[in-house]
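seq as requested:
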Amino acid sequence: AMAQAALGAAGLHFDELNKLRVLEPEAAQQTAQLREECRAFLDKIVEFQKIVGSLIELVDQLAKAAESEKMKAIGARNLLKSIAKQREAQEQQLQALIAEKKMQLERYRIEYETLCKIEADQNEFIDQFIFQK
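struct tokens:
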């Protein structure tokens, strides 16, 4: 016991296997425990990094998919706009054509009325000519 105290004063200790150690057995045990806890903590950090990495990857994929859908929607909207413009242009062409045909119809109506009047005048002339004989 006295030898152990003298060695303890010199900073030397015996472990459970009676090997000479510089650290106290309790300090050595705490150091080993801390080392294990650190190793477990590092393992958890690595696992956490993997999870975060896969989460970031998933979010990236979702962002790309959303961007792709957005582009499709913009394309569809632009297509609809161009179709609407085409329809509008067609409608204007048809309105112009209708106006042109109405004017043509009015000219034909006036021409028809004029021809009817000429026919009536000629019939009257023929009737007078026949009655004179």
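The mean pLDDT is 90.
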